[in-house]
Design a protein that fits this description.
Number of strands: 12
Structural class: mainly beta
Low-confidence stretches: 1-5, 7-11, 17-27
Radius of gyration: 32 Å
Strand content: 5-15%
Shape: globular
Distance between the termini: 105 Å
Order of helices and strands: HEEEEEHEEEEEEE
Length: 409
């Protein structure tokens, strides 16, 4: 009998414990409400203040080397008085020592540097990381640079910061290139091989000159933001190699120009391995070599831009899409009469190309189709003009081996 009572007592204790647990779980505690993460603060606004002279801000102790500085060159450090330099050696150089946080504003007057041209360009190089910002025209006028809108001579700022692997953008202050009146080769190779530059300065000019932006940002491997390029009429070599080797550039600027000149877009985006979409190319008046190697080795780019021109120029599309490995369909090629070298190696090594529509009926021009589809895989579709029977077949300089041929409707 005592054993029965002990079992009953144990059951009662278990029941009481279960009731207590239930009571706790049904208490009036407020439900758990997760706290949303704090919003990401907005990016600080960028400033193109033309009143700030061209400024080097040191991010570490080091030196600024000035090669071939103009005789009018002077500088201010941390808001102090003007100081001058005394170059020596061959080529003549002067050195400014800087400590972390120093701000060195650069000034000069006139066109002495630009008149000397290549071989003795004014070059600025820094031994440690630095930010560059402010108005480059302070190297043209030390007193009125904020109102300068015209570059005065050819090659004026050519190669100015070429090879500066430590040049960086400031977080909020931009490099300012305000000129709307340019000269030949005025910015040629200005920032070439500046591997840490991420933002390009604005380029407001609409009236271009031969070679004005040639190689300006070549091999700027960190560049992710290109400037707008509003010009409607181009000049010889004006954009040649401008973004060559800019491996991180994903978006190309709009290119609204309708009048082209020789080699104006030559190799403009060659080696831009992150570029995913080509800009529209509305021009119908072409020039020799105008699109030569424009998208060479743009391995992610697809689709190709439309090419509306029906009158071609010598070598106009030479190597245009060579090594564009993501390209599966060529732009329609409406021109009936080809020009010397116009399609030479145009789609060479396009490993995934599977469709080409070419309406040419006169392909007699010198080397117009030479190796234009070399390295293209078999199995694609080629659409030709109805009644056109002169196409070579089974050839990298005609219709590739193993392609299906159709007539255009």
């Amino acid at each position: 009998m005592k054993k029965v009572f002990r079992i009953a007592a144990a059951l009662a204790a278990v029941l009481a414990l279960a009731l207590a647990v239930c009571s706790c779980s049904s208490s009036s505690e407020p439900p758990f409400i997760p706290i949303p993460p704090a919003p990401t603060p907005p990016e600080p606004p960028l400033s193109d203040d033309p009143t700030i002279p061209l400024t080097i801000e040191a991010l570490a102790d080091g030196t600024i080397t000035l090669e071939n500085p103009p005789s009018t060159f002077k500088y201010k450090k941390n808001g102090g008085d003007f100081e001058t330099v005394t170059p020596s050696g061959d080529p003549p150089q002067a050195i400014i020592a800087v400590a972390t946080g120093d701000k060195v504003c650069l000034f000069a007057d006139g066109t002495e540097n630009s008149a000397r041209g290549y071989g003795s360009c004014f070059l600025i190089n820094c031994s440690a990381d630095f930010c560059l910002y402010g108005n480059v025209m302070s190297l043209e006028s030390s007193s009125d640079y904020q109102n300068c809108a015209a570059i005065l001579a050819d090659n004026e700022f050519a190669c100015l910061f070429v090879g500066n692997e430590r040049l960086k953008n400031h977080a909020t202050l931009n490099i300012v290139l305000p000129a709307t009146e340019l000269k030949e080769s005025c910015y040629d190779a200005m920032f070439e091989h500046c591997k840490l530059l991420e933002r390009a300065p604005k380029l407001p000019a609409t009236n271009l000159k031969d070679g004005c932006y040639k190689m300006m940002f070549q091999d700027c491997k960190s560049l992710v933001q290109a400037p707008d390029l509003p010009a409607m009429e181009l000049a010889k070599d004006c954009y040649r190699d401008m973004f060559y080797g800019c491996e991180k550039l994903e978006k190309a600027p709009a290119l609204p120009a309708v009048k082209l000149k020789k080699s104006c877009y030559e190799s403009m985006f060659a080696g831009c391995k992150s570029l995913v979409k080509a800009p529209d190319l509305p021009a119908t008046e072409l020039a020799a070599f105008c699109y030569y190697s424009m998208f060479d080795n743009c391995v992610k780019m697809t689709p190709a831009p439309a090419l509306p021109a029906t009158t071609l120029a010598d070598s106009c599309y030479l190597d245009m899409f060579i090594r564009c490995k993501a390209l599966t369909q060529a732009p329609e090629l409406p021109a009936e009469t080809l020009a010397d070298g116009c399609y030479m190696q145009m789609f060479c090594q396009c490993d995934n190309l599977a469709y080409v529509k070419c309406l040419a009926t006169n392909i007699s021009a010198y080397q117009c189709l030479l190796s234009w589809m070399e390295g293209v895989p078999s199995g694609g579709t080629f659409v030709k003009a109805k009644g056109m029977s002169d196409w070579p077949t089974g050839s990298v300089s005609g219709i590739p081996n193993g392609w299906t041929v159709q007539d255009s409707e």
